[in-house]
Design goal:
Largest sheet of chain A: 8 strands, parallel, barrel
Enzyme class (chains A, B): transferase
Strand content of chain A: 15-25%
EC number (chains A, B): 2.3.3.21
Pfam families (chains A, B): HCS_D2, HMGL-like, LeuA_dimer
CATH architecture of the largest domain in chain A: Alpha-Beta Barrel
Pathway (chains A, B): Amino-acid biosynthesis; L-isoleucine biosynthesis; 2-oxobutanoate from pyruvate: step 1/3
Oligomer: homodimer
Distance between the termini of chain A: 37 Å
CATH class of the largest domain in chain A: Alpha Beta
Radius of gyration of chain A: 26 Å
Number of domains of chain A: 3
Family (chains A, B): Belongs to the alpha-IPM synthase/homocitrate synthase family.
CATH topology of the largest domain in chain A: TIM Barrel
């Protein structure tokens, strides 16, 4: 049996405290969600946030392979007709085929927050859905606070969702907006509603009781066939149901048909990583299914032992969701990873090569000093190749100096024996310009290389402004995208390192091998 | 009805990858757990880890008010009598009154891992429990991999727990050791076992399916009256059931008697914080019940609503578990958010005050230029107060300049008319030192202010190194923690802004109002 997935990372997820996505990242997340195979991507609330309207505009430049883009909005305001409601107009203006419309179903909210009569609220629900249906949209109706509403006044809560059905809603979603529910109640209430409606019933769960994933599962077991959630469980307060857990639970443990098939599951780990990065959050290594330690095995447990009877120690095969088994005291996982990368680039190194061991030791040592190559394998590849004597940097930064104050930022660099100087809008920009002024004369292909992301965090112990910082840079030259890392107590020094690695990496790629690495993201 | 709690933070929690507790911290956590009112504290595995044996020795210097200390161990090894088993001897040596004994109940593990006959395993379970009972201990028997075992061979799994009961176990705990289960299966299987046994049944859940909390609740609903878990859900791989969620769910939502009463719940937030600190992990601000943002409210409309009817927007009263309501300043916010902050600081501004509207416009304008006040309300408060003419910066940075290269970073600043100069390990450190060299002479209280976090991202359109960057800083002076933001194309300029806001904020707080803001995080 099939269960539809609506992802609301870009709407409910973006409402999480401390999370804000750039327009660029929103587009990239949407494309990744489409590639993952979700059925609906809720892209934002155009009637509330002009930035969300921009997103829908930007998305017109892309065609999605499977997913449908959905815009979120509220039922019309009291005393305003649907056709005059700005919020509904914004949904139509966004140009989507699917609307997610939220309405009140808890009598307390109708009376105390909306301050309208129960009948007026039903009219608001009916009119709004009818209006969008008349304009040819598919309508998913989210009944806000449904479960708490049902607990207080089941008749009224049911009248609301039946009104939505009568008005033509294609799907009726029961929301636990406050995250108040426990699994047994969700099962019971959802089951009652499924019996009363003919349209597809969905569930939308928040995690305030720590049960969002379980509640979603129980909703499906009670007959729901549409689930809403977000990547990594982003969302208001404690978040929404985490789709990276809901989807594998439904597919691998309950045999439901979700996404386009089992192969899509392998994309979960990467999309989880990317969403954390875009949200400015550190990945949770302990996250079920996709966390780095989700399949870790403690010291003493033999590799062979686990490989023989994996089912004795692992609830699922980690490869299914793009994750890997990790042995806490073993570097085996590390060495096979880097070998895969090197092979991809055309370097055929034997696993027994002593240079490989040396390179891995160097990488390990750097990791202890604050480097992280998870998100910046390009730097790890360069380090390994240098250590193995297989590559010498084509671009060598011999000296740099920056002078910076409130008004001006100037940098001097010496690259491959030549001096360059530039003024920039900031110290890193000045260095970048000075460096490229020399480098692009030597290697014109660098003119296509753009810096597409730049992030700084303190990876280790926080010692105020004395802390070691880690700079992550992402580059794109129109064919390949790659990421590098630099670490130092000086943010400029770390930036210079990541920058020169970024340029050296693409020079190595383009000169060593020009066919195999197109469209590969490192 | 009462449900017993066994906390295994110090045993299962300590097995989490990346977590290690010092002996001192273990003792402090044990004392806090006793104060919280848990029934059992599983302190370690003395037969496996000499450090755990030390802990039990150290605990002899303390008397606990309510909790009983328990030592963990395995059933005797095959071919060794109970009295000669070193692991059982270590439990006795630890001097505890309670043993938690783990034994196999999944036939796969008996055959492939233990490599003994099914009957031999039953003997190992029986002998080990009998031996400890004969020495006067209370025995809690943990049936490892019980649920997966029951799924494969229910008769054998049941024989194991019945053997434990016959041997005199006081409590039989069903463990989902791989975290494989979903809530409905836990309910079904636990219910069957409860019917078959006379002793108290307990549950021990892992989070690999993201359902540890829900599974624990379902176990209790099926008749279990003993729950095992850890503070913050620490534990192997993805962790154990998080007691900071299990306990309030059982007490506040299901009416079970847990701990010594409702007042104990208020200690949850503090113990959660302390365990994170001792484990060397960052607190999860999105954690249900105890997270900093668990009761945050973001949208402006919402804030009005929350003040009107809290039960419409909060699943429980945050005060019950020692947490507080929080209003987040953001682009979605109306004026109500900032008013709450200002009121907290003792500024009573009317909602109609025209200066307030001007301040909000300024904040909104800055948000469009890349600022984000979600995580840095201290900056928003300063901006609002300045805009309303209620505060002039006590610290004014009039000029700064940095000279930086690979080897040296020097900064000159002019603050309140005075020059300062310093060398640092990086440009921001140099500025920080130069600024404080002047500022701390003027305001000695700034000596206590530490920078506790520093992050940089590109908030808007990525234009390579020309991009606007956003710097977030977190400060702590031992009484208060606060966060500020700076935005510029220059990472140094943005850092100077966040830094001077950070110092100005605490000067404003300490000079304007010294009582209301202690222990408040902004």
């Amino acid at each position: 049996m099939r269960v539809e997935v609506l992802d609301t990372t870009l709407r409910d997820g973006a409402q999480m405290t401390g999370v804000s996505f750039t327009l660029n990242d929103k587009v990239r997340i949407a494309l990744m969600l489409d590639d993952l195979g979700v059925d609906y991507i809720e892209g934002g609330w155009p009637g509330s946030n002009p930035k969300d309207a921009e997103f829908f505009k930007a998305m017109r430049n892309y065609s999605l392979s499977h997913a449908k883009l959905a815009a979120f909005g509220m039922t019309r305001r009291k005393g305003v007709s649907a056709k005059d409601d700005l919020n509904l107009a914004a949904i139509l203006d966004s140009g989507v085929e699917v609307a997610v419309l939220v309405g009140k179903s808890w009598i307390l909210h109708v009376r105390e927050v909306l301050r309208v009569s129960p009948e007026d609220n039903l009219d608001m629900v009916y009119d709004s859905i009818r209006y969008l249906k008349d304009h040819g949209l598919r309508v998913i109706f989210d009944a806000e606070h449904f479960y708490q509403g049902f607990r207080e006044d089941p008749d009224y809560a049911l009248r609301v969702v039946k009104t939505a059905e009568e008005a033509g809603a294609d799907t009726v979603v029961l929301a636990d907006t406050n995250g108040a529910m426990l699994p047994h109640e969700v099962y019971e209430i959802t089951g009652k509603v499924v019996k009363e409606l003919r349209v597809t019933v969905g569930v939308h769960m928040h995690n305030d009781s720590g049960c969002a994933v379980a509640n979603t599962i129980m909703g499906v077991l009670a007959g729901a066939r549409h689930v809403q959630g977000t990547i990594n469980g982003l969302g208001e307060r404690t978040g929404n149901a985490d789709l990276t857990q809901v989807i594998p639970n439904l597919m691998l443990k309950l045999g439901f048909k979700v996404l386009r098939g089992i192969d899509d599951l392998r994309k979960l780990k990467v999309i989880s990583r990317f969403v954390y990065e875009a949200a400015g959050l550190n990945p949770n290594p302990y996250q079920p299914y996709v966390g780095d330690y989700a399949f870790s095995h403690k010291a003493g447990l033999h590799v062979d032992g686990v490989s023989k009877v994996t089912k004795a120690y692992e609830h699922i095969d980690p490869e299914l969701i793009g994750n890997t088994r990790r042995f806490v005291v073993s570097e085996l996982a590390g060495s096979s990873n880097i070998l895969v990368y090197l092979k991809d680039l055309g370097f055929n190194i034997s696993k027994e090569d002593p240079r490989l061991r040396r390179a891995l030791e160097r990488i390990k040592d750097l990791e202890n000093r604050g480097y992280s190559f998870d998100l910046a394998p390009a730097s790890a590849i360069l380090i390994a190749l240098r250590e193995m004597g297989l590559y010498n940097d084509m671009l060598r930064v011999e000296y740099w100096k920056v002078v910076s104050d409130d008004d001006m930022h100037v940098a001097i660099v010496k690259v491959n024996g030549e001096l360059g100087v530039a003024e920039g809008v900031g110290p890193v920009h000045a260095i970048d310009k000075a460096l490229r002024s020399v480098a692009s004369k030597l290697f014109p292909e660098l003119n296509n290389v753009k810096l597409t992301d730049y992030r700084v965090i303190i990876p280790g112990e926080v010692k105020g402004t004395e802390s070691v910082v880690r700079v992550l840079m992402e580059f794109d030259d129109g064919r390949t995208r790659w990421r590098t890392v630099g670490v130092s107590t000086s943010i400029i020094k770390a930036s210079v390192e990541a920058l020169s690695d970024g340029l050296n990496y693409i020079l190595m790629i383009r000169n060593h091998n020009t066919t195999k690495v197109n469209n590969t993201t490192y």
